[in-house]
Amino acid sequence: MTLTGQLLIGSRTVTGNGEIIHAINPATNTPLAPDYPGGDASHVDQACALASAAFDSFREIAPAERALFLECIANEIEALGDQLIERAVAESGLPLARIQGERGRTCQQLRLFATVLRKGEWLDVRIDPALPQRQPMPRSDLRQRQVPLGPVVVFGASNFPLAFSVAGGDTASAFAAGCPVIVKAHSAHPGTSELVGHAIARAVKNCGLPEGVFSLLYGSGREVGTALVSDPRIKAVGFTGSRSGGLALSKAAQARRDPIPVYAEMSSINPVLLFPSALQTRAEALAQGFVTSLTQGAGQFCTNPGLIIAQQGPDLERFISSAGELIKRIPTQTMLTPGIFHAYQHGVSQLKANPKAQLIAAGLSSEAPNQCQAHLFSTSAEDFLRDENLQAEVFGSASLLVQCRDAEEVRKVCEHLEGQLTATLHLDADDLPLAQTLLPTLERKAGRLLVNGWPTGVEVCEAMVHGGPFPATSDVRSTSVGTAAIQRFLRPVCYQDFPDDLLPTALRHDNPMHLRRLLDGQREA
Ligand code: NAP
């Protein structure tokens, strides 16, 4: 397919007339053709009008048909072949194998939501049949199901140009729920976005769905993104990116006449606790695991281990020395964009200039453009508790070790943490009593707790939680990875005393969809 740089508004391709976006190959700092002129207010209006018009029919098609649509998108993405892989590599600087893996994850995610749709449990049907003889008051017939919120705006993430972008997790879960989607493409990978956008548009057409089910707009987040979030026809937002971007869009959503939910995944430093016995038995292995996790993908993961917490002593010294030696040998890696590289450089220079942080080790350096040099710093618990700047996310392969005098300081540091996507515990049997005392704090702080693993690598499955208290996300009640993500785009509606013919199919008396309903308080077999 020839890239055109055009917006996709329903089934139409349109040349934008806003500020031009150029993709840049971060490995060489060279621009990539074509130009991507951004959209304007009229494009936002057209996309929202089409999405709104498509909503009522898209949401009521049989779940099995929406499942076919998701599978069709996956097939169309695979059919893009090497062109998609090559463009995503050029626009992101990520290695070929990583992008190939990410394409697999993207398609698997879409197909997983297709199985969710076919099972029907997402409808969460609850029925309390009428009790006309009940005293002192009869009970009406009450039936509940989940319905989609309405058109959703998705902001593609820079660090997952496939799995968290145009056809990524937010789009897959919104489509599964029955919501039309308008994507504001990330300006770092417009060509990848165009290819995937056309794959979705083909799936819309092949499945005979209304064209407004999907649109793709380029343009500045402050203009096009804010206009989309402020449009009254939009009913929810999915976002992954910076804390400032997520907060600005949440503010725009709250300023509407009808505020809407914004599911923004923003900032997390993912504390890793090294317990005394685990350090004693395997300090060197822990250092190896930590450095691998820290430096994978130039540290550009929301679950990157940016904070290590441990008690001082000879075993921690072994960990420090081992991790330091390993980091010194780590080559640089290309970062996603010049902007992300500069933000990383700034974050590292802030730590270097902070008298409360000491540099343990830095990786190899390079003169090539946009290179991430790994860094490990150390501070005391006392200083960490005093200086909020030490909790700031440095997006990339940088981490801070917080050295505690005793278990009480470990507890204080954990209590002081902001909300996190993950918290990791490295422990042995002897560490269990201490871990037990910290669990209530960690459960309040993080969405996923791990034992003896590393937080990078997020499984797409039923039980996953990729969320957490602010600033990890703007809405602590949900996950953006895994099948539970569908719930973000649904809301319950109750039907009271409806004649059977007027009820939605899922709620009819003879249960034509064979759902496992909650009938009079009992789950059906
Ligand atoms: P970003 O700057 O937040 O951009 C993400 C999206 O939000 C883009 O489409 C952007 O539009 C839009 N946007 C940004 N600020 C906005 C605002 N004030 N109002 C409206 N829309 C806005 O994120 P990024 O470019 O991916 O990376 C920048 C930094 O974000 C990184 O250095 C890192 O600190 C953080 N980040 C964190 C994670 C994580 O998972 N925790 C992931 C990625 C990035 P434009 O196209 O105009 O830029």
UniProtKB/TrEMBL annotation:
One Pfam short name: Aldedh
Every Aldehyde dehydrogenase domain range: 17-460
Coiled-coil stretches noted in the UniProt entry, renumbered to this chain: none
Family matches, as SUPFAM superfamilies: ALDH-like
Keyword presence, Oxidoreductase: yes
Keywords of this entry: Oxidoreductase
Classification via Gene3D superfamilies: Aldehyde Dehydrogenase, Chain A, domain 1, Aldehyde Dehydrogenase, Chain A, domain 2
UniProt cross-references to InterPro entries, sorted A to Z: Ald_DH/histidinol_DH (IPR016161), Ald_DH_C (IPR016163), Ald_DH_N (IPR016162), Aldehyde_DH_dom (IPR015590), Aldehyde_DH_Superfamily (IPR050740), ALDH_KGSADH (IPR044151)
UniProt protein name: Aldehyde dehydrogenase (NADP(+))
